[in-house]
């Protein structure tokens, strides 16, 4: 069965300050880290071994995921002391499973994407075409911030154009792509490589079989505060989500797709809307909180008024999640 690689080593610059203490993929959406949602999606497609390619704040992942057995999966960690770029990270991660002798495909996930697409169908399409690489493609209204991927009607990729001012198509790299093992050995080892700016364009230019798998399912890159909050609200729906072991005091109203992590306590007579609250947070009585992100283990005093803030046990900074 194919092996998964999650690219979770980026700095999450556009999400700052939310990523000051938490790597982007570990930010909770609808009560679970993005990475956990991706692991569950990989598992559903039959993938059992997943390698986390970490770099920035790499220490945060292992205590949460361990060896993966809690999810019935086998998790490995490839840590880059300096970020190797997306291509370098893939090559470095694949080395953990001896890719040169492997017959198994690698399914690579950008670690900041929520996608409802059918990974097993993408894998089938890859095999049916005897492709070297197969990208999940999605249509977006504005393709400028993404990798633009024009294809022939049969799905064969014509070009790969990362972040262009005048996109030639609305069809973009949705951040889940499959590589046959031979492709991995062509990525130079031990150096910084961009899969988007170097590997994909070269494969296409060399006439290699690179295909696009079009599936217009739920899709979101959570790379900005507005997108992260939207992703969480999309999962939660109109009401709110409360994780296991939460207590909510009498008279408190939680709304606007807010999400409360496991073991958190909300006092009495609080009003909380459009807010993401991590695990083990303690919120006092009579607090009004909106459009805010409260990190794991934070404590909020009685009568606090919090609007558009990032709060952690050590920081209190403004954010604009709209
Ligand atoms: N391990 C590791 N090392 N991971 C990295 C590194 C690195 O040096 N650099 C980036 N990543 C991870 C990020 O953490 C993220 O999960 C993923 O690679 C993609 O990086 P982003 O910084 O989020 O890229 P982007 O959103 O601008 O563009 C990418 O995603 C789009 C879809 O959301 C590209 O792949 C585009 O082509 C694509 O359309
Ligand atoms: Mg991204």
Characterise the protein shown here.
This protein is an alpha/beta fold and 322 residues long. The protein has two domains: 3-221, Spore Coat Polysaccharide Biosynthesis Protein SpsA, Chain A, CATH 3.90.550.10; 237-318, Hexapeptide repeat proteins (UDP N-Acetylglucosamine Acyltransferase, domain 1), CATH 2.160.10.10. Helix content is 20%, strand content 29%. It contains seven helices and 27 strands. It has helices at 34-44, 61-65, 85-94, 119-128, 181-184, 195-205, 225-236; strands at residues 3-7, 28-29, 32-33, 49-54, 74-79, 106-110, 113-115, 133-139, 147-148, 161-162, 171-179, 210-214, 219-221, 240-242, 247-248, 253-255, 258-260, 265-266, 271-273, 276-277, 282-283, 288-290, 293-294, 299-300, 305-307, 309-311, 316-318. The strands form seven sheets. Strands 5-4-1-6-11-8-12 form a seven-stranded mixed sheet, with helices on both faces. Strands 14-17-20-23-26-27 form a six-stranded mixed sheet, with helices on one face. A hairpin with a 4-residue loop joins strand 26 (309-311) and strand 27 (316-318). Helix 3 (85-94) packs across helix 6 (195-205). The longest helix has 12 residues, at 225-236. It is elongated and about 65 Å long. The relative contact order is 0.14. The structure holds guanosine-5'-diphosphate-alpha-D-mannose (GDD) and magnesium ion (MG). Residues 110, 112, 221, 223 line the site of magnesium ion.
């Amino acid at each position: 069965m194919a092996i998964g690689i999650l690219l979770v080593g980026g700095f999450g610059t556009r999400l700052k300050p939310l990523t000051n203490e938490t790597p982007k993929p570990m930010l909770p959406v609808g009560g679970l880290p993005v990475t956990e949602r991706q692991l569950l999606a990989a598992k559903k497609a039959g993938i059992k071994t997943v390698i986390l390619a970490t770099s920035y704040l790499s220490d945060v992942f292992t205590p949460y995921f361990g060896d993966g057995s809690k999810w019935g999966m086998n998790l490995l960690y490839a840590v880059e002391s300096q970020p190797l770029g997306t291509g370098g990270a893939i090559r470095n991660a694949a080395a953990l499973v001896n890719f040169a002798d492997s017959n198994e495909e690698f399914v690579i996930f950008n670690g900041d994407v929520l996608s409802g697409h059918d990974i097993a169908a993408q894998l089938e399409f890859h095999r049916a075409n005897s492709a070297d690489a197969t990208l999940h493609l999605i249509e977006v209204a504005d393709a400028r911030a993404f990798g633009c991927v024009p294809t022939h009607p049969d799905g064969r990729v014509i070009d790969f154009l990362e972040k262009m001012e005048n996109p030639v198509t609305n069809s973009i790299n949705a951040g889940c792509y499959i590589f046959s093992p031979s492709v991995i050995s062509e990525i130079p080892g031990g150096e910084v490589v961009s899969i988007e700016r170097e590997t994909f364009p070269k494969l296409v230019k060399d006439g290699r079989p690179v295909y696009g798998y079009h599936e217009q399912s739920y899709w979101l890159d959570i790379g900005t505060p507005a997108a992260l909050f939207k992703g969480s609200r999309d999962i939660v729906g109109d009401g709110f989500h409360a994780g296991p072991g939460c207590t909510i005091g009498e008279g408190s109203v939680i709304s606007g797709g807010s999400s409360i992590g496991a073991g958190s306590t909300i006092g009495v007579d609080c009003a909380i809307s459009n807010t993401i609250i991590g695990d083990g947070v303690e919120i006092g009585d009579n607090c009004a909180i909106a459009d805010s992100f409260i990190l794991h283990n934070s404590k909020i005093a009685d009568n606090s008024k919090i609007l558009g803030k990032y709060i952690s046990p050590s920081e209190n900074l403004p954010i604009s999640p709209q």
